[in-house]
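Give me the fold.
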Amino acid sequence: MHERLMKRAISLARRGEGQVSPNPMVGAVVVKKQTIVGEGYHLYARKDHAETVALQRAGQQSSGASLYLNLEPCVHVGRTPPCVDRIIKSGIREIFVAMRDPNPLVSGKGLKKLRRHGIVVHEGLCHKEAKYLNERFSHFIQTKQPFVVLKMALTLDGKIATQSGDSKWITGEQARKEVHRLRYGYDGILVGVETIFKDNPSLNVRWSRRNKITRIILDTNLRTPTQAKVFRSKDPIVIFHGNRVAKKKIENLSSQAVLIEVTTSNGLLDWDAILNNLGQLKVSSLIVEGGPRVATSALRSGVIQKINFFYGPKIIGSSGRAGIEDLGVTSLNTALNLSGVRLKRFGDDFLVEAYL
């Protein structure tokens, strides 16, 4: 029963995807005499945290009840008062928490205070599922840099296009819809300027979010066309460029995007500087959708936490354009190792999701 109720809390929390950043996704379930008497989940615009919503709905039935939370309740004052105090006042008898809050302002302090007030605390139920749900939040709150996933659409032999550049479509409609769902949960989408030239993408999402999704372009020499489709969106656009750019180019684009100069090495922009700047802009999670050069440089720099590779049942052969270029791997011992591999089917296509 306990596992079922915690999974219910996690399911509720997931409803906040795309609506809670920079906060974590949190769901809460209040149970009394084996009956759910209150539920809630967090939406940033609503302000009230999941615990408060669930306890308000449970009302007086909260006294002597059990509370299930996928994340430790906050103990600090933010946009709202501490949820721990609200739980204590409600008369909750025991609480089940899937994982501790990685935020240094919380990180066990909430559970400690609950125990001091006589509330029985159980930790770790469905911990793996809860950690997966809020991996983006956890990474950002601990590093101040966005959680980065590399997304690519590939043929079975690892190509992203034919020799002529034809890539529409490697995957089918179901897989492409999943890409939009994936984008919906992230704060930023990043491509290189070559992708802007070749595909002229809009980098849009089919569903509206509370937060705007930041479009990011890596453009060392600031060659992005002012008429590119990406500028038709009202969402913010950030272009990273090098220090050897003509003032005229900066003037042409400064009214359409936030331009940020970063250092370069061998003609490539510095990834650490890019991620630090995005962190300061509160971009807590990022999808890299650039071409082979961007993908390869990101992998070489070690900034990718996760890959989402969509494979279509096609084979192009050696003349096709490889999705990943030279990584400097000379033996299997130096290959990039992946863990936590998951496979998902979307029609005839499939997704490989894994961590570096």
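The mean pLDDT is 92.
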